[in-house]
Automatic annotation (TrEMBL):
Taxon lineage: Eukaryota, Metazoa, Chordata, Craniata, Vertebrata
Protein name in the entry: CSRP3 protein
Region Disordered, residue ranges: 92-111
This protein's UniProt keywords: LIM domain, Metal-binding, Nucleus, Repeat, Zinc
Gene3D superfamilies hit by this protein: Cysteine Rich Protein
InterPro entries per the UniProt record, alphabetical: Znf_LIM
Source organism: Circaetus pectoralis (black-chested snake-eagle)
Amino acid sequence: MPNWGGGAKCGACEKTVYHAEEIQCNGRSFHKTCFHCMACRKALDSTTVAAHESEIYCKTCYGRKYGPKGIGFGQGAGCLSTDTGDHLGLNLQQGSPKSSHPSTPTNPSKFAKKMVDVDKCPRCGKSVYAAEKIMGGGKPWHKTCFRCAICGKSLESTNVTDKDGELYCKVCYAKNFGPKGIGFGGLTQVEKKE
């Protein structure tokens, strides 16, 4: 039967999808507002969608439903997951025995300690989190604290030097800790004659 009214039918709501509101996935068309995970209803885009036949899921729900079964699977490498997906309406217990205890012992106090032990900035003494961390002299620094100890110039990897746990620009380092004499450390020919 010919489609007289416009575009294709939406894979989720079965209504007409016009070109301006169309997202295509796995050979099917969807409204932008209908492009959600079929299990958790999270909005999807081209980087987060995982399609299985005529169904679309976020990568997490897809892994729970169609990925390997058992403790530690369905969440990515290195994660221990006992989430069954029951709250999302996923039946994941099909033929996979589930042990009541994890196969590796966990120590929550060790994990909690790791979350609390955040690196401290040598300049200001405050916590340095990953988003603001710059390494210099083998220590983590805030971006705003990553400055020369003498002149205050902002530093980067090409002009930083360190001595005794403190950071310096190359000019200040040369003046204060470099070789002394004519042509070094700011002395000139005029100073020598006097």
